[in-house]
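[agent] plan:
  1. take the single chain provided in the ticket
  2. run structure prediction with default settings
  3. attach structure tokens to the ticket
  4. add a short note for the reviewer (M.T.)
[agent] executing step 1
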Amino acid sequence: MLGHSSNPPSKTLAIIINNGFWPDVDPNAFRDEERVTSITDVRIRQSLRAAMADINRQLASYQHNQQQAGRMACDAIPPEPWQSPGDIELLYTRAIYAQAQADLQERYRDYSATGEGKKRGETMDTAADDYRADAREAIAELTGRNHTTVELI
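[agent] step 2 finished; step 3 output follows
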């Protein structure tokens, strides 16, 4: 589990209001679905708000194009033939959750000077990178872009 706190997390965190186009974010759902139980309420909200700002910025052109087409909220976007109803909101939420998880992984890595601490920190860095890749893939799927994987040799 990430992070430890002397202040136990709250059972009910207030919904994070979004920009009106994308869905609001429920920190309680994030905590339950992502099994992030030992992080403070303040840290959960901060990570989710930062993730929302980042993902919304990445989707700004997509959102603008949808609004120009008369779709004033994401639930008005017709799904692509390969998508099911609700997939756009699901993928958006997945991107937010993955970005927030990446942030939490980096914030709570162990800075111990021991070999075990260094190994744990490297593992958490890899996990953060994996979460960022999940966010990119969710955005690509949401917008209909092809997924591309590039590996440096």
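[agent] step 4 note for reviewer: Residues 27-143 form one domain.
[agent] ticket updated
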